[in-house]
Amino acid sequence: MSEDDRIRRVVIVGGGTAGWMTAAALSTVLRKDLCTIELVESDAIGIIGVGEATIPAIHDFNRKIGLDERDFMRNTRATFKFGIEFVDWTRIGNAYMHPFGRYGYDMNGVAFHQYWLRTQQLGSDLPYGDYCVPPVAGKYGRFALPLSDPRSVLSTYSYAFHFDASLYAGYLRQFSERRGVLRTEGKIVEVRLSDRNDFIESIRLESGTVVSGDLFIDCSGFRALLIGDALGVPYENWQEWLPCDRAIAVPCRNPDVLDPFTRATARSAGWQWRIPLQHRTGNGYVHCSEYISEDEATTIVLGNLDGEALAEPRTIRFVAGRRARSWAGNCVAVGLAGGFLEPLESTSIYLIQVAIMKLIERFPDRSFNALNIADFNEQINLQFDQVRDFIILHYKMNNRDDTDFWKRCRAMQIPDTLEYRMRAFRERGHVVYSRRELFLETNWVAVFLGQELIPVALDPRVGCLSDTLIIDKLDKMREAIRRATETLPRHDRFVSGYCAADTGSAASGTSSR
Amino acid sequence: MNDRTSRDSLSNIVVVGSGAESAAVAVALGVSLKGSGIRTTLVSPSQGQSSTGIARVRGGDSAFHSLLGVDENELMKSTAAVYSLGSRFTGFVGGNESVFVPLGAHGMTIRLVPFHHHWISSMTAGDTGQYNDYSLTAAAAARGRFGPPKAGDNAVLATVAYDLLVDLDLYTHYCQDMAKTLGVRVLKDRVSGVHVGADGRIEQVRLFDGSAVDGDFFIDCSTERLLVGALDAAAGFEDWSEWLHCDRFLSLLSKRQREPSLFTLLKAVDHGWLLCNTLQNFTVYMLAYCSSHLDDAEAKRLLEGKLAHSPVSSMELASYRPGRYSTPWIGNCVAIGPAAIAIEPLNVSSLQLAQNAALRLLGMLPAGRNDAMLAAEFNRITLNEHIGIRDFAILHYHLADRQATPFWIRSRDSALPDSLRKRVELFRCTGRVNTDENEWLGADDWISCMINFGLLPDKCSPLVDMADAGQVSASMLAFRDAVRQTAEK
Questions:
Q1: Quick one: what percent of chain A has pLDDT higher than 90?
Q2: B460 neighbourhood in chain A, CB within 8 Å
Q3: Residue A61 in contact with residue A24, Cβ under 8 Å?
Q4: Quick one: B256 exposed, middle or buried, by C-beta within 10 A (0-12, 13-18, 19+)?
């Protein structure tokens, strides 16, 4: 390729989780003598950092950039997570987990959930979660890393992390700066475009400094300074399906038990997250302002903490949706500038990571090939749309009659793509999924069944095994899981042995989210 | 939920067809439904009449053969099969040169950038060898040495991929025999009629011996579309002849001519292409051609002229229109193999497509009459797969630079279907190929074909230049050495 076409300067606008993840990843693939990476952030602008909970896909990111897990966990006061518990979503008093793990095992090529459904037909009332390690171990606050021996049931799950997003950004900042990323402090006051208004030439800071670049990454969060304000790429509004538009966030002291999972509890007009870290628990009430006032929402979240609040509650406002295109001209939006989906399935950091990796796969030169850009946008939109559908499913399938909010969610029209998946599952327990997408068969089944979408018929191959044999096999699976999880250590003990934060520096960074 | 004893439940599946496809579907159902009380009946004329003599099916990690639980060595013995590590195309590009397109992946990812970007970029820099020097499959094929990989083999060895070339008659018998032992009823007869109920669903097929077979779910693997045709004769045939010009297929077996090669041999001829391969029991000659350029009598003479030994079969001619039916699953009947798609077996055999469809269908068997979503989903995935197969076949013609005859000139110059045009353009400008998981061929296969047929992208990933050139060439050299050493071991 011609050297003249090469990208020589990458400018990242915004230094939150998205900005520093981008910087860290690009610094591992770009040579600093050929291409500089400059990150511009303002100390005056706080970071959102709602994405304190992750999903197992984060391992792929960490591996690709070469992060050491223990070191990263220590520095971000991280804990382990092997699922999300959904409380009161179907009806008050009911709970299920969407785990990072396999349920039972498939028999004769037939998915496990088909057999479980058969035992339900036969009168069993044992929960689906009893056949999966995380929900069982989670109940007792136990955690250990999965084993590699495929014969052990303790090899059937994966895990992710809860971490302090501010510390994570700081940790990646150090990582990036060691690799030559330049950090410039300053508030952006002007974005200068090319003559045809389709390319960004430079940004001007309050100090008067002008930062020019070949490729701009917009990590400016909801402000979307580049992709939105400057380039005018429209934002597709998804509030008709995801009406929540506020979150009240507040950290609190940890309870005695350190749960190895995120909890999402449905409330009258939304839901409350609970994310346990080593040094505190993050909480927040995602709600719909049409149905509840901020004061009421604040009262509710403060009344539902595990321990004393550690800071003043803070309000975050948002609009669910995404940019029509995440990449326009020489600007790529990563993170909230590209779209926002509430953190119900902890997908914020995943969506950042996908955008970064797809950008690396499609790293441009200065000719900014249109096919390359169109291909990127198609892939990113596919990811956003699937996550959107997965989140909508939780709302659509609720059985709550206590508030208008939940009744409205149940009655709403849903996207055709979700309707298609739900109908296929209802018809015969068949899961429509694609390996190109984030959520696979086991994820969809966990939430379909958790939200009580029960198929009207089963795979006829279930009939190859006699009912007594099915019951017997499932009993054995359940027993094996129960026994194996009893051998696991308590999550808090495991964390302190594996990656306890250095308490000497524990004072810093606790107050910001 | 439906109780199992409900009248609405699936209880009788009837498979119809004369070739290996129907036998494969029947045995897959036999294995998967054993003990379920659901009965499978295969209606197939006495002789497994194959139109091509041999077929290529996936070896090694074949999901189909694992479902059957068969040992590959035993299967190969029973079907006179040989290994095929790829295809050697002679006369398609570069005059009468041969190019080899191996199965499986080339090289390894370096610094998050797929191997071929590094290889293409380093070509201009110096001696980095041929693309196929980085494929163990190609290296093994070139040296005539091959053993299937075993668990615990080194990482390079694990990159080997291979197909099996099977004798279709023997394969048909193998599947039918196995189906019988699994309790599948095999009726050696032909279908004389189909009874469709008032609700538009097939209820019964009638046979020439006067008997009738009842069923509640039907699978049609017949070239004549005996069952699906009764439901919807029109059924949206999508004609592909504007891109794929071959419409005749001639095959002939001769005495075994030479030792089997480790790959499929394809040779461009004036109005089509010729395949010649030796199995354990015979040598097969197959000619695909375009009838508007070559008449059948000439084609027969041409094929006979290729024989070095006396034929052991009569010449078989199949004529077809390339294309597919847009709704493979209609009502309670699913079209599989020749009933669903007609395409020259340049890369993928009809048997392989039938195996894929059978596996797909097993996961979507309806519990009763309520099957609209299963059908929609089966059709969606199948159609995607078929488009990928079509495009991959067209790619070979598009990239062929053989100028000798109107057939090749027309094949090369036909406007590409949008899906293929998009894929080729994306490769040209970025060096990337995206494939959908429902496609039978993955990005590695596409890239291997494009590069070996001489299509190189105008640009590769700019990240190649950002990697340390010394480190990259050291990694490449190490991989190439590992390939050579492993192939020679």
A1: 93
A2: 1
A3: no
A4: middle
Chain B residues touching residue A466 (CB < 8 angstroms): 35
CA distance A109 to A124: 23
User: Mutate which of B115, B461, B466, B468 to test chain A, going by most A C-beta atoms within 10 A?
Assistant: B466
Interface test with A, best of B1, B379, B438, B447 (most A CBs within 10 A): B1
Of B4, B434, B437, the CB nearest to A463: B4
Q: Which residues contact A426 (CB under 8 A, 6 or more apart)?
A: A453, A454, A455, A456
Distance in angstroms (rounded) separating the CA atoms of residues A271 and A299 = 14
| In contact, B156 and B482? CB cutoff 8 Å | yes
Does B374 contact A at CB distance below 8 Å?
yes
Pick from B37, B38, B374: which is nearest to A427 by CB?
Answer: B374
Tokens of B362: 């097993």
- State how far the Cα of A9 lies from the Cα of A32, in Å rounded to an integer: 10
pTM: 0.95
Chain A to chain B, count of Cβ pairs less than 8 Å apart? 140
Mean pLDDT of A223-227: 97
- Residue A457 and residue B368: Cβ atoms within 8 Å? yes
pLDDT in tens, B437-464: 888 999 999 999 999 999 999 999 999 9
ipTM score of complex: 0.93
Contact between B399 and B454 under an 8 Å Cβ cutoff? The reply is yes
Q: Which residue of A has its CA nearest to B433?
A: A375
Beta strand A36-41 pairing with A182-185:
parallel
Identity of the residue in B33, B463, B465 whose CB atom sits nearest the CB atom of A461: B33
B426 and A362 within 8 Å at the Cβ level: the answer is: no
Contacts of B142 (CB under 8 A, 6+ apart): B100, B132, B487
B358 vs A contacts (CB less than 8 Å): none
Backbone angles phi, psi at B315, to 5 degrees: -75, 135
Please tell me if residue B111 touches chain A, with a CB cutoff of 8 Å: yes
* B140 Cβ neighbours under 8 A, 6+ residues apart: B85, B146, B160, B262, B487
Among A1, A427, A435, beta carbon nearest to B373: A427
Q: Please indicate whether, in this complex, the C-beta atoms of A428 and B35 are within 8 angstroms of each other.
A: no
Interface residue of A2, A5, A10, A29 to substitute, partner B, most B CBs within 10 Å: A29
- Sorted by sequence, the CB contacts under 8 Å of residue B63 that are 6+ apart come out as B359
**One of A32, A81, A187, A407 is an active-site residue; which one?**
A81
List pLDDT tens digits, range A266-323. Answer: 999 999 999 999 999 999 999 999 999 999 999 999 999 999 999 999 999 999 999 9
Any catalytic annotation for residue A407?
no
**Average pLDDT over chain B, rounded to an integer:** 91
Nearest Cβ partner for B377 among A31, A121, A424: A424
Strand ranges of the sheet holding B341-342, from the earlier edge strand across to the other edge? B237-239, B323-325, B341-342
Place of tokens 């079969």: B313
Structure tokens at A372: 């390359």
Length of chain A: 513
Q: Token digits for B14?
A: 């009837």
Residue B213: what residue type?
A: V
Tell me the per-residue pLDDT of B172-222, one tens digit each, with 9 for 90 and over.
Answer: 999 999 999 999 999 999 999 999 999 999 999 999 999 999 999 999 999
- What are the residues whose beta carbons fall under 8 Å from the beta carbon of A200, sequence distance 6 or more? A191, A192, A193, A194, A213, A216, A226, A230, A231, A329, A330, A331
Angle at A454 between CA A450 and CA A460, to 5 degrees: 125
Taking the Cβ of residue B468 and every Cβ of chain A, the question of whether any pair is shorter than 8 Å is answered with yes
Output the CA–CA distances (angstroms, integers) from residue B49 to A158, A252, B52, B173, B250, in the order listed. 50, 75, 9, 11, 14
Q: What is the largest CA-CA distance in chain B?
A: 77
